[in-house]
Amino acid sequence: xxxxxxxxxxxxxxxxxxxxxxxxxxxxxxxxxxxxxxxxxxxxxxxxxxxxxxxxxxxxxxxxxxxxxxxxxxxxxxxxxxxxxxxxxxxxxxxxxxxxxxxxxxxxxxxxxxxxxxxxxxxxxxxxxxxxxxxxxxxxxxxxxxxxxxxxxxxxxxxxxxxxxxxxxxxxxxxxxxxxxxxxxxxxxxxxxxxxxxxxxxxxxxxxxxxxxxxxxxxxxxxxxxxxxxxxxxxxxxxxxxxxxxxxxxxxxxxxxxxxxxxxxxxxxxxxxxxxxxxxxxxxxxxxxxxxxxxxxxxxxxxxxxxxxxxxxxxxxx
Length: 318
Known about the structure:
Elements: H1 10-13, E1 23-24, H2 33-41, E2 47-48, H3 58-62, E3 64-67, E4 77-80, H4 82-85, E5 92-99, E6 102-109, H5 110-120, E7 135-139, E8 151-155, E9 158-165, H6 171-175, H7 181-186, E10 191-200, E11 204-208, E12 214-220, E13 223-228, H8 230-244, H9 260-272, E14 282-286, E15 291-294, E16 299-304, E17 309-317
Parallel strand pairs: 1-14
Antiparallel strand pairs: 2-15, 3-4, 5-6, 5-9, 7-8, 9-10, 10-17, 11-16, 12-15, 12-17, 13-14, 13-16
Helix pairs in contact: 8-9
């Protein structure tokens, strides 16, 4: 909650927020258009839709499959259905690559991404790429400890399809991600933009805000989202920018937010409860089929949990 008097200036404003525990985003009692409008969209507050309300989205079962068990009563391992997705292997997608602290953003094919995921799940060696050069050794167990067949290398890098626009995907893939009725009817009836997010957890999106309301749907794996109302989020972001002497845009997913000191400070401020952390955060955890409404201007950071394949889709609407 804000104090009764808000100080002027971002650097001062950051110190005028009271510290309080993270709150859980409330869940709507049903997924009807009327309930969504009355309790989320019109008051512009975050809300979870009822558990599993988007489990019917075709991509949930067509793009992913369950295999094996994590053991100790945990659910099965989520993997990509590469046989199905390989049909679209030539499609160009934006990729974010993190590797031992390094970060790169490139454009490459979906087939490249699928091959890399297969590599990380086995001992197959991916052809060398400059941004994948750092590798670590693992033991395959197929031969004696000192034999050539016993040690293989796999990339230590993580590749994330980040904010790939649905409009750039082929018709068959878009058909697997139909626009939810809430998006089509709650606002002005048109979609500002929509994106898919696909990669191996732990995935990470730094604190930022969007200029449009956002319906975020989890397709596979688990993610946790931490949110701040507009003024509190601005205070967090301004505090970090002041600390590093930066001037980054709050609405752009810039590379400076994905590596180095800015990433570390933002992540610590939002997720680790660093000294002087500004309170007032909300939090929601999502599994496959869950959906979260993020109002316009609300700051949010997203983390993928576990080590499974993690997939999401979102629609920004007016």
